[in-house]
Design a protein that fits this description.
It is built from no helices and 20 strands. The protein has 280 residues and is an all-beta fold. It folds into three domains: 58 residues; 92 residues; 90 residues, Sandwich (Immunoglobulin-like), CATH 2.60.40.1930.
Length: 280
């Protein structure tokens, strides 16, 4: 009796993860995709002939799939770094990832990116300036003018349906930026006379903080308080009353983004400032 067709089947634990990629279970040639990276055990593929009088016995062949423990994309080969803003205490670097790789015989195609914020001493001063940590290009702002140290680096991974790649770590390329004015350490006032005392609490804060200033001026004059970013831009300004030589006011500003600021006041010709960090 002449055969009239074919009938394929995949059996076993691995076979249950099989789907037809091209062709059909009744065609002479069928391409099967396995949604499992496990090794084939007793799994097999079977084919039999069909006819008008019934089907033949099946021919079984053991599957040869080997375990694939690294079906994720390969790690990115490199990260392109470019300095785009060289302002004191507000340097901005652009980081660009390579194009997403296609699938190979041993690695799946990448579907996206996953950046990690810079780490290390210089990395601790970094904030995201623009872009997304899942984008191809990001810009990072550094409030430090120091050169990159040995431990300062940025990392990038590819993402895929099979998981994330190993990270590509690249040392930061920041060179020291000279000629910048020094800024007092956090919590230390730049005093204009020895009797003055300025305190911000808490510091760092999330944009909600208290300012206490001993001005030494007994008149109930009005003081101007400004919050200035590291580019010298006044981002917030308010008035406060000097009550018997003390300014004691609370500030709540949810518009402040992560970074360093100077809190500056002026009253009766006397001025002072103190460094503050916002960390949300």
């Amino acid at each position: 009796m002449a055969a009239t067709g074919y009938l394929w089947a995949c059996v076993g634990t691995l076979g249950s993860a099989a789907v037809v990629d091209s062709g059909s279970l009744t065609s002479q040639t069928v391409t099967v995709r396995f949604n499992s990276t496990a090794v084939a055990g007793t799994d097999s593929v079977k084919v039999l002939y069909t006819s008008s009088c019934g089907n033949s016995l099946a021919k079984a062949a053991k599957l040869t799939n080997v375990a694939s423990s690294s079906n994720v994309p390969l790690a990115p080969a490199s990260i392109t770094i470019a300095l785009v803003n060289n302002t004191c205490s507000a340097r901005v670097y652009r980081y660009t990832a390579p194009a997403l790789p296609v699938a190979t015989a041993t690695a799946s195609a990448a579907t996206g990116y996953l950046w990690a914020m810079p780490i290390g001493t210089l990395g601790a001063t970094a904030t995201l300036d623009s872009g997304l940590l899942s984008g191809k290009v990001i810009r990072i702002r550094y409030s430090s003018n120091a050169a990159a140290a040995t431990g300062d680096s940025i990392k990038l991974r590819y993402t895929s349906l099979c998981g994330n790649s190993l990270p590509k770590a690249q040392k930061l390329s920041n060179a020291a930026l000279v000629g910048c004015k020094s800024i007092a350490p956090i919590g230390k006032a730049i005093a204009t006379n020895a009797s003055e005392k300025t305190m911000i609490s808490p510091n760092p804060n999330n944009g909600n903080f208290k300012v206490v200033i001993n001005t030494g001026i007994q008149a109930n004059a009005t003081a101007t308080i400004q919050i200035v970013n590291m580019n010298g831009v006044v981002v917030s300004q308010l008035k406060a009353v000097n009550n018997n030589g003390v300014i004691n006011t609370e500030i709540h500003d949810n518009r402040l983004v992560n970074g360093l600021y100077m809190v500056r006041y002026n009253i009766g010709g006397v001025s002072n400032s103190i460094k503050m960090m916002v960390q949300k």
